[in-house]
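Reviewer comment 2.1 asked that we show a complete input and output for one of the modelled complexes. We chose the iron/sulfur cluster case, as it is the one discussed in the main text.
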Amino acid sequence: MIPITIDGQPVEGKEGENILQVALDAGFDIPHLCYNENVKPYGACRLCLVEVVRRGRSRMTTACTYPVMEGIEVLTQSEKVLRARRMIMELILAMCPGDKLIQDMAKQMGVEQVRFKKDDNKDCILCGLCARVCDEVVGAHAISFAFRGDRREMVPPFLGEAMNCIACGACVVVCPVDVIRMKEEGDERTIIRWKRTLKMKQCKVCGNYFAPWFQLEKFKERAKLPKDFFDVCFTCRG
Ligand code: SF4
Ligand code: FES
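Response of the prediction step:
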């Protein structure tokens, strides 16, 4: 175990863990939007800023990307940290003014005004979680960042339909601001944001449409499953 202190309290982390993980497990409250324990930390939202004191020197860093190291002191509530987080929250609020989660987080952090230009046409906070889950967990590599600066966007290749998307809906689940929508109508499932519509497979037992054909074929291929493995839905399989 690796001993550190967080806000003066002794805490222990494990080799390979980051400060955010250790702090959250120990019950500290550090705001975060782009962290998900199932994918590699990316440090996109910068909300998890903390001050780390190591060998007498202090620096600000994102807690999700900083590994625990013996003897470090972590400050999660210093004036410097709170001021920087408020500024970041203002930027995020300007990027996504209509989202309830963001509004609530901003309120909790004491952010009442936004000095940056709000863009009501934008809704994505560019956290990158959808693409990281799609790459690292699903393995579909269907979406990625494009453009730079204030034109940066999360998009399918060539801005058209996401041809690698298997419509599994993992991105829908992880998006912190709920801007990726999925709809099912008849035998079709559509991931609206990625312009991807796929035909669904019908269960041979209950007759329900339960998952896109393309997704099931990919899973079968990857796991070398028998041809008829997905003829029956997950519920009827028991
Ligand atoms: S669509 Fe959602 S998950 Fe993807 S980058 Fe934007 S905010 Fe993050
Ligand atoms: S949670 Fe650490 S930068 Fe977003």
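The mean pLDDT is 95. We note this here for comparison with the apo prediction described in Section 3.2.
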